[in-house]
Amino acid sequence: MTFLLIPHLRAQSANIHNASFLLGGPPVLPAYFFAHALGRRLNFKALRVSLVHHYMRPKGQVGGYGVFYPQQRRAASFTYGSSSGRDYSSKNKHALSLQPVATADMCVSLIVECEGLRTLQGIDEILFGSRFSGGAVVSNGKPKTTPSFEEAFDLLTSGYVVMDRRDLLERREGKDQAQLLIEALGSFPSKARGTSWLSATNLGYAAISEFAQRIGSREGYHHAFAEPLVGVVQYRPIRECKDLQPDQMLWRSEWISEDVFRVVQDRID
């Protein structure tokens, strides 16, 4: 097995609208899908991915009472009301409507567990023209391969490892998972030293329609409409993770059922 390190990958205007009710959170799913897409270009299989967060700068402004207002864009007509040609979401009939988006500039490092990776030739050109969480990749450190996860991880000297904390959402008597999510985000991570915090992010999808061929689906694959699965993760400083096992920091994908897909880590600290 080979481990590919992509250090300090910077993306501009990456999507942080993880769900209809959620802005922000580390881009765990985009990191996994980014590695999958890179594997298709370089002819290897991406098995698992470790995500290290460096920074994220949301685009927008903070108003009264600390409320964040994301930067919006005007684009093609959002939708129409009863009046033909009139966008009901805009009071100005001559202006395009504001789109429900939230973006940020971010920097992350990825460690990808690879099967069948033979060469890094052409990877710089692929990375420069790629997108991460919908944002344009503008720069990255020099990619490297190592025979073990530990060697790749030791090359990173700063940042926060994004770790799975689904244990905080395990069912408890008298509480549903929505209540547990709210409580977890207001708590201090257990077994944490120094700077560490919890966050919510999208970790999968559950289909809400049948899989079928639909117009516009990519490469002719069957398509289904889906809702995001929001989970809890922990940002943990690299200096506190040197003694952890790779399984505690690598995300893998799984199908829980025929219509539910998610990414998880095999062990929870």
Please provide a written account of the structure.
There is one protein chain. The chain is mainly β. The chain has one domain (2-61, 99-264). Helices cover 13% and strands 39% of the residues. Strands 1, 4, 9, 10, 11, 12, 13, 14, 15, 16 and 17 form an eleven-stranded antiparallel β-sheet that branches. A two-stranded antiparallel ribbon has the order 2-3. The longest helix is centred in the first third of the chain and has 15 residues, at 28-42. It is globular and about 60 Å long. It starts with a strand and ends in a 5-residue tail after the last strand. The mean pLDDT is 89.
In short:
This protein has 269 residues and is mainly beta.
Tell me the span between the first and last alpha carbons. Answer: 24 Å
Which structural class is indicated by helix and strand composition? mainly beta
Q: How many separate domains?
A: 1
Oligomer: single chain
- Please compute the radius of gyration using only Cα atoms: 20 Å
The proportion of residues in beta strands is 35-45%
Shape annotation: globular
Helicity level, as a percent range? 10-25%
